[in-house]
Design goal:
The complex is a heterodimer of chains A (538) and B (337).
Chain A: H1 2-35, E1 36-41, H2 57-66, E2 71-78, E3 81-91, E4 94-99, E5 103-108, H3 122-134, H4 137-144, E6 154-158, E7 161-165, H5 173-176, H6 187-192, H7 202-207, E8 215-221, E9 225-230, E10 244-249, H8 253-261, E11 267-268, H9 273-282, E12 286-291, E13 295-301, H10 311-320, H11 323-330, E14 335-337, H12 361-370, E15 377-384, H13 388-403, E16 407-414, H14 416-425, E17 430-436, H15 442-449, H16 465-480, H17 483-500, E18 503-515, E19 519-520, E20 536-537
Parallel strand pairs in A: 1-10, 1-11, 15-16, 15-17
Antiparallel strand pairs in A: 2-3, 4-5, 5-7, 6-7, 8-9, 9-10, 11-18, 12-18, 13-17, 13-18, 14-18, 19-20
Chain B: H1 2-29, H2 34-38, H3 45-55, H4 61-73, H5 87-122, H6 127-141, H7 144-158, H8 183-189, H9 193-230, H10 233-240, H11 245-282, H12 288-297, H13 301-329, H14 331-336
Classes of the chains: A alpha+beta (538), B mainly alpha (337).
């Protein structure tokens, strides 16, 4: 009897779950699929707070979408669609921005609240900016790039008004307030979780978003997924169209592509170039390729030590590099060439811009002989294994090409974790690397990469009084608005850099994004991550 | 029996102390500077030093080791820098995922390999024997990530039979309330058949990938040990007594042949945990293998140490369990203990 009862109930249970469930579940599921966007990428955030110790780049994406800044950028039409306009600012939390001679004053939007309902006040703004310049590491460094270094620079005028004092005239100060770092944090909420050892509440914001941004994180499983949902009370702009975004980490590039092609995933952006080219040709998906703003992949040489202290050797290398082969075989055409400008092309007031070298082995050999290295020399060619997909073939092609002019190279593969340490030592003789700056100004790039104060990105240890003078001149001219001097100085430092050739630009990389045809609203931002607020499906 | 267990447990302690010391110093000997890595792409030297001080990496090694041991005493395995979470929580959350996958793969493998091995032994030299040899050799020769990608390509991408390789559950399912951490069991406990089917379907491809890889040792060991037993006197006697061939093989021969098979199973289980690393990568499986690899790439010390320690404890526990099992299977082992 019991057995029979059991069988009956079991059959009933099975019947409901097999027959009943799909009928009930499917429409609801289809509905939620329609309102939900599934993003797949290789890696995810390690910290939800950009002020955190060692927050990685995926973490920036969370910060960008879950926190507001005082100001942001307007959109314009770029080469591949919507593109942020570096010269036009849009008010986000601020209602009004008033730029004075040595300060800028912001009035806050009256209705602005954080996600827990507390109103955003001037105190929150000051606390957040103080935090950014005080916590040290990357955020403080980024604030410093816009001459924002001391808490005293941020002054609360009343509940609704904040003034930012300039330390000196610097054209980068206001753009620096629109990058990801100066995000506005719910100071009362975070203070509740602050401890003596952790006065800025970093442990709390690492795991929780405490802002007033357009999205809030509702689930985060490190290394697996991030789920964000729309903040219905957002005042920073138009209410986003997508209710919920699920961001899954899929380490295998092949599977990310399969997910896209099968229509299971909506967006993916870190696929190998070859996949992007094939997907583009198949035409089933929308592929957007935009050049990195202010970014260049280059071959660098240590100019402090022989043999690369000799400019003739550097020129020889510049003539020996297999530029076109790299474009075709490594990047499958998905990059903007930074070589082979016409010989009579005048230098432009722009960066990045191509140099005039092309592959010419005969000329390179002659230069080597002139430099006294007719028999060549041995050296090592290093690259970062973290980006082996591009770096390794570049180095193999370069090795092959340099061998033709007698430079015998051994390839040195440096693990990702070790790469920055190696760069910092500034002893690698020959290497490939990429640099790109958030702030899209020529002098910004040159301060980091060519200036004699020898920042970590001046990986060549390049020292040139002439170049420094042009860079400092351009910075000063930009601050005072002296356009003519600015233009001369920019041309001056570009020319010096291309005459001395301590590093040889190869190409400007592309940000490649693949998405389903029904996904719209992708926009390019200086940080190169996704802005969920404009994305829509269907 | 209890005496045996406690004796074995005592032996475990020096092992674990050794593991703690070696993992600590080995991770420190790895090339790479976590401070430089985590200071971000645009860090100055001062920024790197600030990060180093924050991570406590500026202190002498001995002090760091002392801190590590005292933390261990408080069951604190430190924080992962790549994921930002405490290592212990992370291992606790991820271990069931790996264990479920590995056990599932192992059970699949046993179900296929043991009968295959028995058949191959009974019909030694026949076409079945050769087929078995070819199948298992192929399986073990293919690298797991390759088998995995191949299965994904065929069954997900081409045929569309398998669900998207997106981890333990489809994106639109939520995980069952945690009891054991095994989704298959938890969803049944929760009487949620839909989730059970969903998680089973996610398990199939990675499970088969592991299964294909581990067929060889189990099948070969079953065959070899069966051959030895089949040639022994008591089997001849049993046959001569006119027992049914099925009874002879299953009841008498196989029971006596299981001891080496069980030893192999233990070994296979531990190397499957290792092979898991790659399978987890392919199927975006949130297990401990992929966790450890990511940490290793980023020179993230704490998770690597935590992972090695967990694995060491699991190996020890596994070996202990297998020793116990010997006693159950073969009374002669029990007497010696």
């Amino acid at each position: 009897m019991r057995r029979r009862e059991f069988l009956k109930s079991a059959t009933a249970l099975a019947a409901t779950s097999v027959l009943g469930a799909p009928a009930v579940l499917s429409p609801a599921k289809a509905q939620s699929r329609q309102e939900t966007l599934l993003i797949v990428s290789e890696s995810g955030p390690n910290n939800l707070d950009i002020h955190g110790v060692g927050t990685n780049v995926p973490g920036y994406e969370v910060s960008w979408n879950c926190y507001d800044r005082l100001i942001s950028h307007e959109m314009k039409t770029g080469p591949t669609g919507p593109y942020y306009d570096k010269n036009k600012f849009k008010m986000e939390l601020a209602d009004d921005m008033n730029v004075g001679d040595m300060s800028v004053t912001f009035k806050l939007k009256k209705k602005a609240t954080f996600q827990d309902g507390t109103p955003v006040t001037a105190k929150d703004i000051k606390w957040s900016l103080d935090r950014a310049v005080s916590v040290g590491g990357f955020p403080t460094f980024q604030m410093g790039a816009g001459s924002l270094t001391k808490p005293e620079q941020f002054v609360v005028l009343d509940d609704n008004t904040v003034r930012v004092d300039f330390a000196r005239k610097d054209r980068l100060t206001i753009p620096d307030l629109a990058v990801i770092v100066p995000c506005v944090i719910n100071s009362e909420l975070v203070k509740k979780h602050a401890t003596e050892k952790d006065p800025w509440g970093m442990e709390y914001t690492k795991l929780n978003t405490a802002g007033g941004g357009a999205y809030k994180v509702t689930n985060w499983v490190a290394g697996t997924e991030v789920v964000v949902e729309r903040n219905e009370n957002w005042v920073g702009g138009l209410l986003p169209k997508t209710k919920k975004i699920i961001w899954r980490m899929v380490p295998s590039a092949g599977n990310r592509r399969a997910l896209l092609e099968r229509g299971d995933a909506d967006i993916s952006y870190d696929l190998p170039n070859k996949d992007f080219v094939e997907l583009k040709n198949e035409g089933k998906l929308t592929i957007v390729s935009t050049p990195y703003s202010n970014g260049i992949q280059y071959i660098g040489m240590n100019v402090k030590n022989p043999p690369f202290d000799n400019v003739k050797v550097r020129e020889a290398v510049a003539y020996a590099l297999p530029y076109q082969k790299i474009m075709d075989a490594v990047l499958f055409g998905l990059a903007k060439p930074m070589f082979g400008a016409a010989a009579d092309k005048p230098t432009e007031v722009a960066w990045p811009q191509p140099h005039k070298y092309i592959t010419d082995i005969a000329k390179a050999k002659a230069l080597m002989a002139e430099a006294g290295y007719a028999n060549g020399f041995d050296t090592t060619l290093s690259f970062d294994l973290g980006f082996a997909g591009v770096n390794e073939p570049i180095c193999v092609l370069t090795q092959e090409s340099l061998a033709q002019i007698g430079i015998r190279t051994t390839i040195n593969k440096v693990p990702g974790a070790n790469w920055r340490t190696e760069l910092n030592k500034k002893t690698l003789p020959l290497y490939t690397n990429v640099f790109s700056g958030w702030l899209d100004y020529p002098e910004y790039f040159f301060i980091w990469c060519y200036h004699g104060k020898n920042s970590i990105f001046n990986t060549m240890s390049y020292q040139s009084k002439a170049c420094d003078a042009f860079i400092d001149g351009a910075v000063a001219a930009a601050a005072s608005g002296d356009q003519a001097t600015y233009e001369t100085d920019v041309k001056g430092f570009v020319d010096t850099a291309y005459t001395d050739m301590p590093r040889i630009p190869l190409y400007q990389p592309y940000v490649n994004v693949a998405m389903q045809k029904n996904v719209s609203g992708y926009a390019y931002w200086f940080h190169r991550r996704l802005d969920y607020r404009t994305l829509a499906k269907g | 029996m209890l005496g045996l267990i406690s004796k074995r447990m005592l032996l475990v302690i020096p092992n674990l102390i050794g593991v703690v010391i070696i993992t600590f110093f080995l991770t420190r000997a790895l090339p790479g500077d976590p401070a430089a890595y985590f200071a971000g792409p645009a860090a100055t030297k001062e920024a790197i030093e600030q990060v180093r001080a924050k991570l406590g990496l500026d202190k002498p090694l001995v002090v760091q080791f002392g801190q590590y041991v005292s933390d261990l005493g408080h069951l604190n395995l430190g924080n992962s820098l790549t994921t930002g979470q405490p290592v212990l929580t992370e291992l606790k959350n991820r271990l069931p995922a790996s264990a479920e996958l590995t056990l599932f793969g192992l059970i699949l493998s046993m179900v296929i390999a043991v009968p295959l091995g028995i058949l191959a032994a009974v019909r030694q030299g026949s076409s079945i024997d050769h087929t078995c040899r070819v199948v298992v050799t192929t399986g073990v020769s293919l690298p797991v990530f390759f088998t995995g990608l191949l299965l994904v390509y065929a069954f997900y991408f081409r045929l569309g039979w398998a669900p998207a390789p997106l981890g333990r559950l489809d994106v639109f399912f939520s995980a069952p309330p945690q009891v054991t951490g095994f989704y298959l069991i938890d969803s049944l406990l929760n009487r949620d058949l839909a989730t059970f089917c969903a998680s089973l379907s996610q398990l199939l491809l990675p499970g088969f990938t592991l299964c294909i890889f581990s067929l060889a040792p189990i099948a070969r060991m079953t065959r070899a040990s069966m051959l030895a037993v089949l040639a022994s006197d008591f089997v001849r006697t049993a046959r001569a007594s006119g027992l049914k061939s099925r009874t002879v093989i299953v009841t008498y021969a196989f029971r006596n042949a299981t001891l080496p098979v069980v030893t192999t199973l233990g070994m296979v289980f531990s190397f499957l945990l290792g092979a898991n690393v790659l399978v987890e990568k392919v199927f975006a499986w949130p297990g401990i293998g992929s966790y450890a690899v990511e940490a290793l790439i980023a020179s993230d010390f704490a998770p690597v140490q935590g992972f090695v320690l967990t694995m060491a404890i699991m190996y020890v526990a596994l070996n202990l369990a297998i020793d116990m099992l010997y006693g159950v299977i073969d009374p002669r082992v029990r007497l010696k203990g």
